[in-house]
Amino acid sequence: QRPWAEPYKIKAVEPIRMTTREYREQAIREAGYNTFLLRSEDVYIDLLTDSGTNAMSDRQWGALMMGDEAYAGARSFFRLEEAVREIYGFKYVVPTHQGRGAEHLISRILIKPGDYIPGNMYFTTTRTHQELQGGTFVDVIIDEAHDPQASHPFKGNVDIAKFEALIDRVGADKIPYINVALTVNMAGGQPVSMANLREVRKVCDRHGIRMWSDATRAVENAYFIKEREEGYQDKPVREILKEMMSYFDGCTMSGKKDCLVNIGGFLAMNEEWILQKAREQVVIFEGMPTYGGLAGRDMEAIAQGIYEMVDDDYIAHRIHQVRYLGEQLLEAGIPIVQPIGGHAVFLDARAFLPHIPQDQFPAQALAAALYVDSGVRAMERGIVSAGRNPQTGEHNYPKLELVRLTIPRRVYTDRHMDVVAYSVKHLWKERDTIRGLRMVYEPPTLRFFTARFEPI
Ligand SMILES: CC1=C(O)/C(=C\N=C(/Cc2ccc(O)c(F)c2)C(=O)O)C(COP(=O)(O)O)=CN1
Questions:
Q1: How remote is the CA of residue 51 from the centroid of ligand 1, in Å?
Q2: Residue of minimum CA distance from atom 2 in ligand 1
Q3: For the whole model, what pTM was predicted?
Q4: What is the ipTM for the molecules in this complex?
Q5: Could you tell me which residues come within 8 angstroms of residue 44 by beta carbon, excluding any fewer than 6 positions away?
Q6: 204-260: pLDDT as tens digits
Q7: Strand intervals (E) in 349-434
Q8: Probe residue for ligand 1, chosen from 254, 381, 446 as the CB with the greatest number of ligand atoms within 8 Å
């Protein structure tokens, strides 16, 4: 079996350095045991996020020089529009500074106070913008998604019965749209099948409910359909993505993931009245509709990234690199979310640290311990990220208490993955020495970004 190699060669490098353990113990203390508060220069291998941390290609860097910085009607906007039309298939697009800019616009346009927005598991910024408009997020994902060890091939699927039960309970006129995330970040980067998209479309058509996508990692989703769904093995990912998006009325997009850029996003749609509304709103919050908070050069980079992201060799390598890390941990008997997701390996912190109760923040403690052990930065995706219930003020207690090892695109080699695996295996042997944390500073919203902790 010929070994996998990256389908690219390196043209520029950015030195990284390993620090000492005592240095890292000091650094994590100063960062309040919150990996978000570490300085990048103190991080050896940065697996905090795949958002905006991807390497651009020579063509993308070259495209920056072609950026048209005209305030209105920039050429670069029309190149972005053309790429979205060709690859995603939507008629209209409004650029935004990043994904949550698009979430903000669509929430303001479609959600009225008292509305319900069903979705396949929550995402932090998505739910926050729905709640800011007086909407209530309702989780309609299949039960398997909440079980880290359940090995369902499409754990991101919408549970049609749950969706229809919500419609029966509150009425279709209280549901402006269903938000289908492709893939489902908080479930472990899990995909939705094409068959499920068709079923959701049928329910939406029957009740006149719009079908919206959070298409942030839709190319990874397309790759899983190619691998796992009958009839798609011989189709290029580009074709699978186009079919997936054809079931939707529109999408929000964080270009910082699939589209291989460091900043940027967009709202895309097929209905002209939504385009009109988005153009009215975007000038208030992001900028003219032909730049939406982005420089012309950013739009050029996104357009080029949209063409590169559907290259079959590129996406196959991307998915396999994540799997390469996950499989090493599975071989060592380390509990991770299965099947291995598209953008990250998720450690099951509840199973990793059964001696730490959830309100002592096991995933937060594990992420901090990993950094001290090896300078690898991961992200907490458990009770801290789940925040508090707006009605009761109580912690939300998610079933999934996870540490996300998120692999940026085209940045690290498999040797970096070996270093990460070595460190996680070492921690696994020493897991009984890891202690719980108490939160000593808690911000009111999206607390995980800036909260501070101390060891108990
Ligand atoms: C599926 C989806 C995302 O993954 C996403 C972002 N993701 C990030 C950055 C991040 C966001 C929120 C956090 O709680 C978080 F800790 C990390 C991430 O690392 O995964 C956005 C929003 O896109 P924006 O970041 O371009 O605005 C919308 N939809």
A1: 7
A2: 216
A3: 0.97
A4: 0.98
A5: 16, 17, 18, 19, 374, 375, 376, 419
A6: 999 999 999 999 999 999 999 999 999 999 999 999 999 999 999 999 999 999 999
A7: 376-377, 379-381, 402-406
A8: 254
